[in-house]
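for the writeup, i need someone to sanity check this before i put it in the appendix. the sequnce is what the collaborator sent (i think, or maybe the updated version? ugh). structure was predicted straight from it, no edits. if anything looks off just tell me and ill rerun, i have time this weekend
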Amino acid sequence: MLGSRRFHVATEEEIRSGRVTDVYFVRAEEALSARDADRVVVGEARAGSLPNGWPWAVLCGVEELLNLAEAWNVRLWGLEEGAVFYPGEPVLTIEGRYTDFGRFETAFLGLLCQASGIATEAARCRVAAGDRTVLSFGARRMHPAIAPMIERACYLGGCDGVSTVAAADLLGIRPTGTMPHALILLIGDTVEAARAFDETAPEGVGRIVLIDTLNDERFEAVRVAEALGERLAGIRFDTPSSRRGDLAAIMRETRWELALRGYHDVRFFASGGLTPEEILTLNDVCDGYGVGTRVANAPTVNLSFDIVEIEGRPVSKRGKESGGKFVAACPECGAREVVYWRDEPGACPCGGQRAFLNRLMVDGGRVVYHPPSLTETRARVNRALEGLAL
């Protein structure tokens, strides 16, 4: 039993006080104190490679990072929330006495690594889906305590909506969802469940009906369309893998049968473990997607944090490049280069003037960077995704 606790999660105080740390950081503090060896260092976080060969990733977790770091007596630079970054690019740089922040490495990497993986997979689904709807349905696969973080990362990465009530409240949007299979099973018939949903759901909630619970999708779709008529906004295919076969073919067949009967405006949605690659195969017949486990349980971006300077002297462990670094980018052509952070960003070969993407965010225990609203950040992410390939 957990005593006064009811869930196996860290409290905010435990995170802020540095209790959520690998014990070797605590032991390092003790050893440095004994030898009077604490020094001003520069450390940076970057990923040498990305999961599954991803060519790019979306940075997420910066807002929580700043909330953690706001009292540290350091200077902290980072890429902005929602920034697209590439292997080898530093996304976080910290300058300060090592013991002022060292024990928090476990926590701040955790904040960035998991959220960035989720945001990236959501962004990949967005790229695959084009302008079609993408909704986050994956919170049920993960610990409920982190559902709001998961859904926020999905929303930032490109999902149009989220399903959990708490996450939607946090984001200031309406939660999105249709009906569960349980409703149809309890009522005993897809059409009657659709009628019950239609009678009770608030106006403004799209009447999107599951059609794969009990019978063939094609026949259930026709029955639901005839029962709800113009009130039917769409149907959702969550066909289990054991019955799925060629889902695109099932959807085309269903579309044909509905069109023959005059139901041309019914939107089609697919869900059920979809990957970006599977989304690409459904785009010609599907209007939107519910993405779940593959996004909520996305691989983490393996950011590592390494000391690269001590008392102004470049130094690093084997396999790492010493000296602080920033990302210099050209606003004209988009070219990027990692350069020594004390140099100027310089001119781009295209003739444009490059600028550093790494922003000063914390200065001596004071947050000096105030991120734009989530709406603005999402819009920037969507613009950045234009033209990117999976």
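Residues 119 and 154 are 5 Å apart (CA to CA). Residues 105-129 form the longest helix (25 residues).
thx in advance!!
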